[in-house]
Specification:
The protein is an alpha+beta fold. It contains 14 helices and eleven strands. It has three domains: 1-104, Arc Repressor Mutant, subunit A, CATH 1.10.10; 109-253, Endonuclease Chain A (Endonuclease, Chain A, 2-Layer Sandwich), CATH 3.30.870; 268-322, Winged helix-like DNA-binding domain superfamily/Winged helix DNA-binding domain (Arc Repressor Mutant, subunit A, Orthogonal Bundle). Helices cover 52% and strands 15% of the residues. Helix 1 packs across helix 2. The longest helix is centred in the first third of the chain and has 37 residues, at 68-104.
């Protein structure tokens, strides 16, 4: 277990044996772990350098274990830092590898990725490779089940990047995405963390764009055959980028903000309802999203139409967007 953070087994035994003793000499500790005093002393010297053990003043020399939770958190943070540096180095090597491959064979501009686990790992790799911005079409079905990689499910890497505050995210969600039970709340959580989100109708495919350097694409039909395509710099990548921007320009924002009339008195549920209306969601989709009956949805819509003073649900959605309620 301790090898995970670079602590050899013999040093781990010495450290764990020292914890319940409070403080003791190397001789006492060597008897406890059944190791020679010389080896115990060397292990203690190494543990001091690692920050797990403290040498106490006075004679004879005694040693005390540093609080495990504190010592462990420092070791884990150091290892995470090393792993991030390794990941950055691997990303640079990967870019060099693909640049050389593409220069020799234009056909390598597109890689065929097969199998749901490998496709999921590639989606993650594309996001982790971003330096400035990730752009995405979010469309079910997903190659990873919700909860399989943490509560965020398909949004795990997005949440990590947003928390770090280093990568921007623009995501267009398909109407089917917001209709998945529990998905809308997950989307709102991403928006609260800084994601810019919109809703589109019948998105053409799943898509994740890493800056302008690569993209992974998969259609709903290809989900069932377990196939996705990794696109490297090329005219096809340029077309994919242009497609995203065109869809983004037409999609309906989910995260409008600003202090406007009646906004403070509107509940989060009302704003979600109006956001779905503005995106063109049907009564049935809204009912599934909130766990309501269709009749309840229609009643809520009618009440909002009366408050705003409009005649159609489309007018209600557009007026909500104009007033900044979304």
């Amino acid at each position: 277990m301790w090898e995970t953070v670079g602590i050899p087994e013999n040093e781990a035994r010495v450290y764990e044996a020292l914890i319940p003793l409070g403080h003791c000499t190397a001789d006492v500790l060597s008897h406890r772990v059944d190791v020679t005093a010389a080896r115990t002393t060397r292990a203690l010297a190494s543990l001091i350098q690692r920050g797990l053990v403290t040498r106490l003043p006075g004679r004879p020399v005694r040693y005390s274990a540093v609080e495990p939770a504190l010592a462990g958190s420092v070791l884990i943070a150091k290892r995470e830092h090393e792993l991030r540096r390794l990941q950055q180095h691997l990303n640079k090597l990967d870019e060099a590898f693909h640049a050389e491959t593409l220069a020799n064979d234009p056909a390598e501009h597109i890689e065929v990725i097969r199998g749901a686990p490998k496709i999921w790992r590639t989606f993650v790799r594309v996001q982790r490779s971003a330096r400035r911005e990730v752009r995405a079409f979010d469309k079910p079905p997903y190659f990873v089940a919700a909860g399989e990689h943490g509560d965020e499910g398909p949004n795990l890497e997005e949440r990590r990047s947003l928390e770090a505050g280093t990568i921007g995210y623009r995501v267009v969600y398909d109407q089917e995405s917001v209709a998945v039970p529990g998905r809308l709340e997950n989307i709102w959580e991403g928006i609260r963390r800084g994601e810019r989100a919109k809703v589109g109708t019948s998105l053409p495919a799943k898509l994740v764009l890493c800056d302008d350097t690569m993209a992974i694409v998969s259609s709903a039909a290809e989900y069932h055959t377990g196939v996705a395509y990794l696109i490297h710099p090329s005219s096809l990548l340029d077309m994919t980028t242009a497609l995203f921007e065109a869809v983004w320009a037409r999609a309906v924002p989910l995260n409008r903000s600003g202090s406007t009339e009646n906004q403070t008195s509107m509940s989060p549920l009302d704003r979600q309802l109006l956001g779905l209306l503005a995106s063109g969601a049907t009564d049935a989709v809204i009912a599934r999203t909130f766990g309501w009956s269709v009749r309840t949805v229609q009643r809520h819509i009618h009440e909002h139409m009366q408050v705003v003073g409009v005649r159609t649900r489309f007018q209600l959605g557009m007026e909500a967007a104009r007033r900044g309620w979304l």
